[in-house]
Write a structure and sequence with these properties.
By secondary structure, the protein is mainly beta. It has no helices and 8 strands. The protein has strands at residues 6-14, 26-36, 42-53, 58-64, 72-73, 78-87, 91-102, 107-119. The strands form 2 sheets. Strands 3, 4, 5, 7 and 8 form a 5-stranded antiparallel sheet that branches. A hairpin with a 4-residue loop joins strand 7 and strand 8. It is elongated and about 50 Å long. 13% of the residues are buried. The model has no long low-confidence stretch (mean pLDDT 94). This is Co2+/Mg2+ efflux protein ApaG. Residues 1-125 form the ApaG domain. It comes from Halomonas casei.
Length: 125
């Protein structure tokens, strides 16, 4: 581990207006906050997500930065963004990691993202 204190929190929500039960399309948005509690600036270079559907199917997503950016996050600062995931089941789990660069030492390190649940509200017929 890098010794740098980076905190990642995620707030997921179900998007009923974009979802369709009949088409097995369940849309979730999630807002991520990356808080840099270290004394150094860090740059978010890449992301990795593992998305597990309710039936157990997994999808992995890797890419540069987040939402088209590679934000520089100063000491004590936060970066927040919102993205989405589209599942074929009303329940799933996401987890992953961010690859960050410590700009003072040029060291690259990973920060894990704790698994979080995506769940559509129960529909009673």
């Amino acid at each position: 581990m890098s010794g740098l204190a980076i905190e990642v929190s995620v707030d997921p929500s179900y998007r009923a207006d974009e979802s369709n039960d009949g088409e097995l399309r369940y849309v979730f948005s999630y807002t991520v906050t990356v808080h840099n509690q270290s004394p150094h600036s860090v740059q978010l270079m890449a992301r990795y997500w593992k998305i597990t559907q309710g039936g157990g199917d997994c999808q992995e997503v890797r890419g540069k930065g987040v939402v088209g950016q590679q934000p520089l996050i100063g000491p004590g600062q936060s970066f927040r963004y919102t993205s989405r995931a589209i599942l074929q089941t009303p329940v799933g789990v996401m987890e992953g990691a961010y690859t960050l660069l410590d700009t003072s030492t040029q060291r690259v390190f990973e920060v894990p993202i704790t698994p979080f649940r995506l769940a559509a509200p129960l529909q009673l017929h």
